[in-house]
Design a protein that fits this description.
single chain; 72 residues; mainly alpha; F1FO ATP Synthase; 3 helices; elongated
Length: 72
């Protein structure tokens, strides 16, 4: 039983990486808009795409943790 808890805890380490990734996406957005304000809309669209892909990885890691914890 405690193996499941350890496995689920280790799987949630990926959530920290996703948080760092989301932070770097929006940090790059702020820097890009500061350097080139005329490309605001394009940079924002790319940032939202990067956020969505990074968040998808985080949700996948969370799903794996729940499957390990509550699955067979």
């Amino acid at each position: 039983m405690w193996f499941k808890c350890i496995a689920a805890g280790l799987a949630t380490i990926a959530l920290a990486g996703a948080g760092i990734g989301i932070g770097s996406v929006f940090a790059a957005l702020i820097r890009g808009v500061a350097e080139n304000p005329t490309e605001n809309q394009t940079l924002f669209q790319y940032a939202i795409l990067g956020f969505a892909l990074t968040e998808a990885i985080a949700l996948f890691a969370l799903m794996m943790a729940f499957l390990m914890l509550f699955g067979l």
